[in-house]
């Protein structure tokens, strides 16, 4: 295949100096995979300005964290007010109002009208750790189900439950035993060679069963493991790092049925797809399916680190059910930090009052425009997603869905690096996802004009790449 000519974005002397200093002291700096050598000075709303004064439109939102936009004034105000009163005392052991207020709000907005409890940690991976412990403690069952393509973080529980890229797990064995990964409904590239909706050939208690899930019920649960040994099914309602993959609407309701039938705890990892990102509070709201536990992090506090594991009270409180974990079973020094909780309460208010409608509207505008763009471009295989969580799958050949070779430039870059790098040169921050996809993941504050600007750059870059492939 023809190689693409590509040069990495140029760096000023000032930027180069900082990157060199960073490389000297920071872990993994010499192995960073992104083609975006961005040295940030400050950021506001959907714009990021580098140390040379160049401003970029941000379509990455710090990996889906700054949903309210960079440095929202109301978040800053709430943080200042809290900092003057109390910075830290340890939320696992003491009492204060901002932690309670955030927990109450999360309980109110998460699906399910049953009593719930909240555990605050500091990162998405910590919510995953907590979820595994809750499910195992409650059920006393050793086995767990996860999905190919999943990403749940970098701790041992996160790594074990993930199935996205082998580099994330290589040379870290042994992982947590007894986790079975099953295919996620990635219908564009069905590994069973089935076609949705024709892959639905049966049902579970009148809920249609897509083929991937009949593989769970008929193969995994019949031949490999007894579902009575399974504590947890953990799933992303929309896969994020795995490639922005939106499953068919039958997927989550059928998983719910399976979990109910075998008394398995069902947990939705909405760390990337939750909190307004899809135009509703949660991705699972689009199919009216309620998990037993929902995992949240990233966007809770607009950039301050916090995660929340929100689950049925019976799973998380000994006073409600004797099988639940006990005082001392789990905890965290920093979890539920007062300042971060204050930022969280305000962030959720902003999303609810100002951003949910905008997300749905601008999101469907972008998706529609990308679908139109797909018709004229040879390397866009599929456009998928909800709200402002949209994936663009890049293919070498639309008919065969062939992937690009891993190295398509003379200097060994892959297609995602070329496109994100070229967008960056033109003033747009955008990330890749999965093997061969781009992700649209802007702060939820973006306007239609911002969207037009980004779409113009994406269109221009894809045209530029395609011309070289002719
Ligand atoms: C769906 C999902 N779960 C878990 C994580 C891990 O979160 P953290 O990096 O905060 O540990 C991520 C991070 O990208 C994620 O996207």
From TrEMBL:
<protein>
    <recommendedName>
        <fullName>Acetyl ornithine aminotransferase family protein</fullName>
    </recommendedName>
</protein>
<dbReference type="InterPro" id="IPR015424">
    <property type="entry name" value="PyrdxlP-dep_Trfase"/>
</dbReference>
<comment type="similarity">
    <text>Belongs to the class-III pyridoxal-phosphate-dependent aminotransferase family.</text>
</comment>
<dbReference type="InterPro" id="IPR015422">
    <property type="entry name" value="PyrdxlP-dep_Trfase_small"/>
</dbReference>
<dbReference type="GO" id="GO:0030170">
    <property type="term" value="F:pyridoxal phosphate binding"/>
</dbReference>
<keyword id="KW-0032">Aminotransferase</keyword>
<keyword id="KW-0808">Transferase</keyword>
<dbReference type="GO" id="GO:0008483">
    <property type="term" value="F:transaminase activity"/>
</dbReference>
<dbReference type="GO" id="GO:0042802">
    <property type="term" value="F:identical protein binding"/>
</dbReference>
<dbReference type="InterPro" id="IPR049704">
    <property type="entry name" value="Aminotrans_3_PPA_site"/>
</dbReference>
<dbReference type="Pfam" id="PF00202">
    <property type="entry name" value="Aminotran_3"/>
</dbReference>
<keyword id="KW-0663">Pyridoxal phosphate</keyword>
<dbReference type="InterPro" id="IPR005814">
    <property type="entry name" value="Aminotrans_3"/>
</dbReference>
<dbReference type="InterPro" id="IPR015421">
    <property type="entry name" value="PyrdxlP-dep_Trfase_major"/>
</dbReference>
<dbReference type="InterPro" id="IPR050103">
    <property type="entry name" value="Class-III_PLP-dep_AT"/>
</dbReference>
